[in-house]
Write a structure and sequence with these properties.
single chain; 10-stranded antiparallel β-sheet; 31% helix; alpha+beta
């Protein structure tokens, strides 16, 4: 192979290697930061007329909005049932989503009342439930279906997963670093836009047990004292007048 051909081959090899590296980097950059799965949840429900159970596939979706996420929890099958018809607007659902991974705790989601009547003894279709999640920590956070609550006709039905379901959603999030919930600036009263929070911070630091007095309070106190002295003087004068009155 001539010197020129050898250089050309090496040039083509380097170009192919560079293209592969760029493609690999692009694949890494385009890797999804969220992973969703439809998970079967076996709900065990405590109802006013006894225990019931039903399995419903659950999925949880997230849409980023600024520094927060709007979560939507969807039920693909109905759960529980009612012995009587539930009229339009009679059923109000809500649920808890359990956080795992980088975060712990629960997030409440809720949805609108039923827009159509639900016949008696038929599975209750739960509308999509939504809520807002604001990351506090950075890392991978999982979202798992937890307790479902159904309120209808003055009764409450509570359904808990009995099959230890896996997460319906995983997100790679960036937390706020604790600034949103720390209240540090407000508590110190140092910022001009947090006057109310600053007042609250001052009350908390002083224990909130003793009121602070100012010029207005002093004026009220002096006025009260003056009125007491005036009444006492009037009473003394009246007593002396009666003592000096000559007897008939």
């Amino acid at each position: 192979m001539s010197h020129t051909h050898r250089h050309a081959a090496l040039g083509r090899g380097a170009a192919l290697a560079l293209a592969a590296a760029v493609a690999g980097s692009a694949a890494l950059l385009s890797a999804p930061a969220a992973r969703a799965a439809t998970v079967d949840v076996d709900y065990k429900c405590k109802t006013p007329i006894g225990d019931k159970s039903a399995v419903s596939p659950i999925d949880i979706k997230a849409v980023k909005s600024g520094s927060a996420y709007k979560l939507t929890m969807s039920f693909q099958k109905g759960v529980s049932s009612s012995p009587v018809e539930l009229g339009k607007g009679a059923m109000h659902p809500s649920a808890l989503i359990r956080l795992g991974g980088a975060e712990t705790g629960t997030l409440q989601v809720s949805g609108p009342a039923n827009d159509q009547a639900i016949p008696a003894n038929t599975p209750i279709k739960i509308s999509d439930l939504s809520g807002t999640y604001t990351p506090k920590k950075t890392g991978k956070v999982t979202f798992t279906a937890s307790t479902l609550t159904i309120k209808a006709l003055g009764t409450t039905t509570t359904c808990t997963p009995g099959n230890n379901p896996g997460p319906s959603l995983s997100l790679d999030v960036t937390g706020s670093g604790g600034t949103s919930g720390s209240g540090g600036a407000g508590g110190s009263g140092g910022t001009s836009g947090s006057g109310t929070s600053g007042t609250s911070g001052a009350q908390t630091s002083s224990g909130g047990s003793l009121p602070q007095t100012g010029p207005a309070d002093s004026a009220i106190a002096l006025g009260t004292l003056g009125a007491t002295v005036l009444l006492t003087g009037a009473a003394g004068t009246l007593w002396l007048t009666r003592r000096r009155r000559p007897r008939a």
